[in-house]
Amino acid sequence: MARIPTRAYNGPVMATLKELANALGLSERALRSRIDALDGLLDDYQRRDKGNRRVFSTEALAILKRLEQLHQDEGLPIRIAAERVREELEDLDEAVEQRAEIQASLVIQYLQTRLVEVAAERDQWREIATTLHSILPNEFEWLGKTFPADEGDPRLN
Fold first, then answer.
1. Burial code of 20-32, b = ≥16 C-beta within 10 A, e = fewer?
2. How confident is the chain (157 residues) per 10-residue block, as mean pLDDT?
3. Do 91 and 132 belong to one domain?
4. Domain containing residue 125
């Protein structure tokens, strides 16, 4: 396949309809029919440039390559191949969501465990403070009043 000449467009690499057609080895008309078959699936991956031409991101190219692969390799009609691509992307989105949920669950478990550990450390330091307070000489009694080792003290909770 031909290499896509690309230009920067607010960040991601973008290609015009003509460049995309050349890269896929299709006519512009054939490319338009594939874009129509995808029925809005590429909307998030295309924009209009300053010349009001449609420009497509590399994600759009990947989706169109997959569509063309299904059409060529498996002999699927364009509409059927487009449906398959849509299903594959939905499955991918679902897998990404599941992974995010699992990661969030692991983070929550870690934080809950860490919270228990920190509470235990707090209690240990509270005991040390109580012990130190009890052996504090009279001239440092003010220190015990400034930093009481009382469980009710909100600074320690």
1. bbbbbebeeeebe
2. 40 79 92 93 88 89 93 93 91 85 90 93 86 81 70 60
3. no
4. 111-156
